[in-house]
Amino acid sequence: MHYSRNLLAATAMALSLFASPQVQAETPADTLVMAWNIDDIISLDPAEIFEFSAAEIAGNSYERLVTYSNDDVSNVYGGAAESWTVSDDGLTLTFKMKEGKTFASGNPMTAEDAVYSLVRAIKLDKSPAFILGQFGLTPDNVEEKIKLIDPMTFSMTMDKAYAPSFVLYCLTATVSSVVDSKLVKEHEVDGDWGYDWLKTNYAGSGPFVIREWRPSEAVILERNDNWTGGDTPAMSRVIYRHIAESAAQRLALEAGDVDVARNLTPEELEALKSNPDIKLQQGAKGAIWYLGMNQKNEYLSRPQVREAMKYLVDYHTIADTIMKGKVTVHQNFLPEGFLGAIPDEPYSFDPAKAKELLAEAGLPDGFSVTMDVRSSGDTPAIAEAIQANMAQAGVNIELIPGDGGQVLTKYRGRAHDIYIGQWGPDYQDPNTNADTFAANDDNSDDAAAKPLAWRNAWQDEGMTKITRDAVLEGDAAVRAKMYEDLQREWVKTSPFVVMFQQIEVQALRKNVEGLQIGPSFDTNFFYTVTKD
Amino acid sequence: MTALPTPTGGSRREWLLTDRPQSRRQARLGQAYRTWLAFRGNWLAMLGLGIVLALIFLAIFADVIAPYHPTIGGDLRTERLLPPSWEHWMGTDGQARDILSRIIYGARLTLLVVTLVALIATPIGLLVGTVAGYFGGWVDTILMRITDIFLAFPRLILALAFVAALGPGIENAIIAIAITSWPPYARLARAETLTIRDQDYIAATRLQGAGSARIIWKHVVPLCMSSVIIRVTLDMAGIILTAAGLGFLGLGAQPPQPEWGAMIADGRRFIIDQWWVATMPGLAIFTVSLAFNLLGDGLRDVLDPKARK
After folding, report:
1. 3-state secondary structure at position B188
2. Into how many domains does chain A fold?
3. Helix-strand-coil split of chain B, %, nearest 5
4. N or C: which end of chain A has fewer CB atoms below 10 A?
C-alpha cells in the first residue's frame, strides 16, 4: 500500500507546520511590521492611487496641500500650503506655500511643485482626477486655471463659486499630494509626466519614503530625514507584509513576527482579547457596506420590490454576530462624522412587511435574482446571511463569487442583478457620497460619468439637482440641512440598501503605541508610532 | 437452456463453486461468486466498500437522516459556531447551520459529481482508446496526440481553466472534471486493445463478416472494461478532491449548497478557534477518498487477471 507512506509524510509535514509558530521572532525595535492584504495596489503614483492600501501608503509618504485633524474632521488646516484666500466672486483660491520645506530628494518645495502636481493629475486623467476635475478643470484648460503667481504662491480658478469647505476637503485627497517636480521631470519619457516611473517609485516629502514595492509580497518605507511636519518619527523603517489569510496574520502576530495585524475576522479578534501580549484598537471609518440593485432587472426596478428588499436584511443580528466589532448599523449614504450625516434607521428586518410589499408589486411568491460577491474577506459571510434573510420572503438569491476584479468589472458594466460591497468616500466632503449615490446626469449606457447610481441604472432628476445645488451653498448649516433632507428621501426610493458603517480594528503587540486610525483610508498615520 | 436444479441451502454454494458448470449462466455466476469470495477476504477493501455503501445510503435518505435543514441556519445570536455536542454532533458553522446535516446533504453532491464524471469520462476514454488502438495508423496518431495535449496539463489547472470559461457552478465543475479525466482511460483502453486486436478470435469474427464497430463494441470493449473500471474507481478519490478543490476556490458548487470543499473554504475563517468548521468536511473528504482508494485497490486485486496469484 503506497498510500500509507504518503500519508505519513503528509502527517509529518502538517505537524511541523503547527509547531513552527512556537519559535519567537521579535521585530527590530526601530521597525514597525504590519500584516495586511495589499494585493489591491496597482500604482504608487498619487495621481492614480485610488485603492485602500496604496492610499494609506501615500498618506504617510506624501504631503497634501490641505489636511484635517483626525480627531475633528471639521478642523481643516494647511499641509504643504501655509494659507489660502478666496476671491470676492468665490471663483479663485490663492494658496501660499509653507517656507523651508524640502523633498526627500533634497529639492526645495515651491509653488511650482504644487502647480505641477495638480496640472499633472488633471492631464494624466486617471481614476481620482475627477476630484479636482469637478471644479471645471480639464486637460485642455488646466494650465490657464492653475497659475503660478510667484515662487511661493499660486492660484486656482474654478468654473463656479463652489462652497469653500467642499473645495478644501477635495484638496485633502491623495490626488492633491505634492510631487517633486524636478525629480519627476528627470524621469519623463515622451511627455508622459513621469507616469511610468512614478508608478513604482517615489517623489514626495512626507514623513516616510517608499523604498520598495514588491507586488503581493511587501512594501518597505524608510524614515525621511528631510521631513519637517512634526517630531522625527521613532520608527526608521515600516514594512507592510502581504499576508492574505487572516489566520496566518493572527499566527504571525502572536508569534511576534509582525507588530500589527490588519485583516482579522471578528472571531479571531474575540480570541485575541485573552492574549496578554496583544491589544486591540478601533476607529470609525467612512466606508459603508451596501447592496446595489440594478434597475435593468425587471423585478428590482419595481418600487415596492426596492423597498421590500430594505426590510429583508437582518441588520442588527449581522452586525452583532458575523461582523461583531467591525461594523455598526447605518442606513444612509453619508457616514457618521460627515457634514449632514443623520443617524436615522428607518428599516428593520421584517419579512411579513416585505411580503406585503412584494404582493403589491405582483410578486406574492417572491422571485429569483443573482448577487455578485467578492470571494474574499467578510463579504461572502454577509452575503450568505442576507441570502438566508431574503429567502424568508421568497426572494431566492444565487450568489456568484468572483475575485475583486471580476466582480467590479461586471458591476461597472451594469451586468449584475445585485451587487454587495463597500464604498469608501474619496474625500471628506459630503458631496463625495451624494454625487455617487444620489446623482446621475446621464443614464445612457455610454455616459461619461459613471457614479454608483449609474452603475445601478437609476436616475432621479430631483435628487441630482439637489446634489448639484448643495455644492454651491456657502452656508455650512444650510448645506448640512440639504444633505439631511436629501438622504431622508433617498433612503426610501433609491435602489441601494445601505447596511453598515465600517469600524477598522487593528490588533497590535502590547509595546506598539501611537498608531493612528483616521476617518479615511489615507489618514492612518504611523509617524507617531513608538515601541518600547 | 437446460433446466437447472433448484439450489437450496448449503447446496447453493456448491452449485456456484462447481468446477463443472452446467450452463453459461452458472459459469458466469460462479465466476462472480469466486471474485466476491476473493474480494471478501480483503478486509480493507470491504471497509472501503462499506463506507461507499454508507455514503450512497446517506445520500438517498438525507431528508430522513439529517437532523436539521442543510441551508437554513438557526438563530445567529445563539446557535453560531457551537462546538460539537449532543444537539449538534459536529457543531455549527458561521451561519448557525448544523455541520452534520450539511455533510449528509453534501454526500449527494459528492456522489453526483463522482457518478456523472464516471458516466461521462469512461465512455469517452473507452471510445477514443479502442478506436485508436483498433485502427492504428493515422487515426491512432491523431487521437493519441489529442490525448497527449490533455495529459500535458495538470488536471486541476485544466479544470480551473474550463470552469473559468464556462462559469462557476456544480454542473460546469462536473463537465470540466469529466473533460479532464478521460485521457488516462483512453491510454489504458488503447494499450489493452493493441494486445487484443491481433488475436485469432478477432480474426475469426472478422472472417464471419463482422464490421469494425461490432468488433470494437462486442469483442474489444468488454475485455478492456475490467482494467478501466479499476482505474476509474482508483480515480474517484482524485475526482472528489478536484471537485472539492474547485468548491474551495469558489468555482464549484455555489453557496449555500453544502459542498464539502466550499465548507472547508468557509471554515478557514475560524480554523484556529473553531476547528470543527473546517475539520469535519475535511474528515468527510478524507474518509470517502480513502474508501474509494481501498475499494479500487481491492477490485484490482480480484479483477486484474495478470496480478492474480
Report:
1. helix
2. 3
3. 70, 0, 25
4. C
Distance CA B20, CA B5 (A): 14
Cα–Cα distance measured from residue B236 to residue A214, given in angstroms and rounded to the nearest whole number: 41
Does residue A16 fall inside a structural domain? no
Going by C-alpha positions, the residue among A527, A522, A514 that lies closest to residue A67 is A522
Using a CB-CB cut-off of 8 Å, the residues of chain A touching B293 are: 3
DSSP-derived secondary structure letter, A196: H
Partner-chain contact A380 B95, CB within 8 Å: no
Do A319 and A270 sit in the same domain of this protein?
no
User: Does B168 contact chain A (CB < 8 Å)?
Assistant: yes
What is the β-pairing status of strands A237-242 and A81-86?
unpaired
Within a domain: residue A46? no
CATH of the domain at A347: 3.10.105.10
In chain B, whose CA is at the least distance from the CA of A271? B273
- Asked if A245's CB is within 8 angstroms of B293's CB, the reply is no
Mean pLDDT, residues B266-277 taken together: 87
Angle between helices B155-166 and B170-181 (to 10 degrees): 140
Cell (9 digits) for A303:
418600487
Residue A84's pLDDT band, with cuts at 50, 70 and 90, is very high
Q: Do A271 and B273 touch (CB under 8 A)?
A: yes
Residues of chain A neighbouring B95 (CB-CB closer than 8 A): 322, 381, 384-385, 388
Instruction: Say which residue, A509 or A14, is predicted with more confidence.
Output: A509
For chain A positions 268-307, those within 8 Å of chain B (CB to CB) are 268, 270-271
Same domain, A174 and A83: yes
Contact predicate B232/B71, CB 8 Å = no
CA distance A437 to A495: 9
Inspect the interface and report whether the beta carbons of A399 and B254 lie closer than 8 Å: yes
ipTM over 0.95: no
Q: CA Rg, chain A, in Å?
A: 24
CA separation for the pair A267, A317 (Å, rounded)? 15
* Same-domain pairing of A392 and A494: yes
- Classify residue A147: in a domain, yes or no: yes
Length of chain B: 309
CATH architecture of structural domain B112-307: Orthogonal Bundle (1.10)
The pLDDT confidence band at residue B7, using thresholds 50, 70 and 90, is: low
Q: What is the 3-state secondary structure (H, E, C) of A37-104?
A: CCCCCCCCCCCCCCCHHHHHHHHHHCCECEEECCCCCCCEEECCEEEEEECCCCCEEEEEECCCCECC
Contact in structure between A63 and A177 (CB atoms under 8 Å):
yes
> Using an 8 Å Cβ cutoff, are A110 and A181 in contact?
no
Check which CATH number belongs to the domain holding A253 and give it.
3.40.190.10
**Could you tell me if B227 and B192 are in contact, meaning their C-beta atoms sit under 8 angstroms apart?**
yes
Residue A105 is part of which domain span? 52-193
The one-letter amino acid code at B42 reads: N
Q: What is the pTM of this model?
A: 0.78
List helix spans (H) across B136-272: 137-151, 155-166, 170-181, 183-196, 200-207, 212-214, 221-248, 260-267
Give A-chain residues touching B42 at CB under 8 angstroms: none
pLDDT digits (tens, 9 = 90+) for B219-245: 899 888 888 888 898 899 889 999 888
Find where cell 476473493 sits.
B38
What residues 326-385 of chain A have any CB closer than 8 A to a CB of chain B? Answer: 375, 380-381, 383-385
The size of the A-B interface in CB pairs under 8 A is: 70
Query: Residue B81 carries which side chain, given as an amino acid letter?
Result: L
* Dihedral of the alpha carbons of A310, A311, A313, A315, in degrees to the nearest 10: 100
Interface test with A, best of B248, B264, B272, B300 (most A CBs within 10 A): B272
- Three-state secondary-structure class, residue A108: strand
Cβ pair B76:A1 closer than 8 A = no
